[in-house]
Amino acid sequence: MTQPINTDHLWMPFTANRQFKDKPRQLVSASGMYYTTDDGRKILDGTAGLWCVNAGHCHPKIVQAIQQQAAKLDYAPLFQMGHPDAFAAASALTAITPPALNRVFFCNDGSEGVDTALKIALAYHRARGEAGRTRLIGRERAYHGVGFGGIAVGGIAGNRKQFGASLATADHLRHPLDLSRNAFSRGLPPYGAEMADELEQRLLTLHDPSTVAAVIVEPVQGSTGAIMPPRGYLEKIRATCDKYGILLIFDEVITGFGRLGAPFAAQYFGIEPDMIVCAKGMTNAAVPMGAVVIRQDIHDTFMHAAPENAIEFAHGYTYSGHPLAAAALLATLQVYREESLFQRAAEMASHFEDAAHSLKGLPFVKDIRNLGLVCGIELESIAGKPGARAYEVFSKAFWEKGLLIRTTGDIIALSPPLIISKEQIAELFGSLADILKTLK
Ligand code: PMP
Predict the structure, then answer these.
(1) Residue ranges of domains in the chain
(2) pLDDT category, 79, cuts 50, 70, 90?
(3) CA of 113 to the centre of ligand 1 (A)
């Protein structure tokens, strides 16, 4: 029996709250690949929660690590002191990042991670005597969380327009989605690397390059509908940043921890950014945590620039490196290693790709794109009602087919836990195909 719910007090984030007045969708427990709803239905998790439960729900080793830590050390600050698991977790994290990225700043989620990385970029240039580097460059359709820095570099005007003032000075490159040339491409889209040339053009015509501090990109743009970089695109962005002394930040909040079949997109693409922002899969989402992993010499610049015994970077959070999060990170990394989950994702990717592209030809399907265990299925919009068709798919999936999927506009996004089996992949795409066939 469903318990009556009082909806008078909770303000749900990024939600049309009025839709839920009478009947909120509710998840009450989870295990492995499945959620259970308040009315006892099993829901196959096609999105790893919000791209974050990479090892599957309620993994016993992660649960146990958190429980033990909660009983042993509930809280300790990292200001002017520390605790053993914070140091151990930072070391364990750098064991899977590109070698030059060797310093970890802990925060609590992706938004804080992005704002932290942007602040490090600005402060780093200042410490080197280049205080004029204040401009930040992001991309259209980028999602970098909801901090003031993140919404400024983010490319979603709707996330900015209610707030207006106080935003950082940011410019935005075009996003690289080009359905005219790349629709239904499998893996990396073949066309469009030249879109990255826009960065150098802007530097030479609009902005003095010596005023630019950092470029931030999601290697795969997740929240706005699984936009993959065209082959060679990210390499060009890296080369241009190098040429003009601009830092390159990879926002790996969704691509980190095996989503593409490598620890980070940095390794998948063979590109070393100057900083990686991560969160989500870091603790398998069991405890909130985020981090910026920074090139050692950027960190060292701060150490050398500050006067002796002064605080080198005026930034930090009460819960930076929280003991529960640190314990969860250590346990999660161990699970990823012991169960070879990144490798498993790499092996499952081609099967996932084939299953995704089997939906080609179904009503209103205008593009299917995939990389690793990420897939975007773009539908034709209903005139004047953007997002309506995808929302119908979303609702039918949840209520009729027992699937958790995500939609953004008219795009369905899938990003299952890395433990998904071939049978579950068949279930996921088979049920989606059934729904698509019913659309009008
Ligand atoms: N960056 C990216 C690429 C994200 O996908 C997200 C969250 N979807 C964020 C930042 C923000 O993370 P959080 O919601 O944990 O603040």
Answers:
(1) 17-55+340-437, 63-338
(2) very high
(3) 9
